[in-house]
Amino acid sequence: MDGTNVRNARASNGANEVGKQALDGADEVGKQALIGANDVSARAMALQLARWAPESLAESWDKVGLLIDPGSPLGSLVGQRHLEHALFAIDLTAPVVVEAVELGAGLVVAYHPPIFRPLERLEGRSARGNLIMELVRRGIAVWSPHTALDALVGGVNDWLADGVGLGKRRP
Q1: Within its chain, how far is the Cα of 65 from the centroid?
Q2: Angle at CA 97, nearest 5°, toward 74 and 131?
Q3: Exposure check for the chain: N or C terminus, fewer CB within 10 A?
Q4: So what's the pLDDT on residue 116?
Q5: What distance in Å separates the CA atoms of residue 50 and residue 35, rounded to the nearest whole number?
């Protein structure tokens, strides 16, 4: 297991807790999306996750939400394919993209936004451009919660505060 996979495996316990919290707060449609109903697309899953960790909680400078959506505005089959697997990661790296492809994931939830600074051009010669183009080619969407998940009641900031055990939480 390489370093990235070790980090992702260590992060999975936190991701599982986050997933449980999302399921507890979901409506019936959302629960079907989160538990893998057959008619759920990556876009529908991202919309449900956004209800749980809304973009309005994110810092104004942050880039959160559905950052890569391979579907066309007309709802092409690529963007609307049934979601069978989703992959959770802290950072979207080349090994994460390879794992997503091997798993057949239709969605990667990457805590840190893979697109942060404006793209001036999208080229396969750059590492970031190559990752983004590979995701689009494979029909894999990317949703990033970053500071929206930090600010969520029971989110990352609360989890860290509980770990330190000092002081009182406040919104």
Answers
A1: 8
A2: 70
A3: C
A4: 87
A5: 16
Output the six-digit token pair for 75. Answer: 């709802």
- Nearest-angstrom CA–CA distance, 16 and 75: 30
Who contacts 124 (Cβ-Cβ below 8 Å, separation ≥6)?
Answer: 130, 133
**pLDDT tens per residue, range 92-150:** 999 999 999 999 999 999 999 998 888 788 887 888 889 999 999 999 999 999 998 88
**CB within 8 Å of 146: residues ≥ 6 apart:** 58, 62, 63, 64, 111, 112, 113
pTM of the model: 0.71
For 96-131, the DSSP string reads: HHHHHHHHT-SEEEESS-S--SPPS---TTSHHHHH
Tokens of 154: 């029971």
Q: Are strands 141-144 and 65-68 parallel, antiparallel or unpaired?
A: antiparallel
Under 8 Å between Cβ of 104 and 85: yes
Residue 80 has pLDDT above 60, yes or no: no
- Rounded Cα gap, residues 17 and 22, in angstroms: 9
Label each residue of 20-88 as H, E or C: HHHHHCCCHHHHHHHHCCCCCEHHHHHHHHHHHCCHHHCCCCCCCEEEECCCCCCCCHHHHCECCCEEE
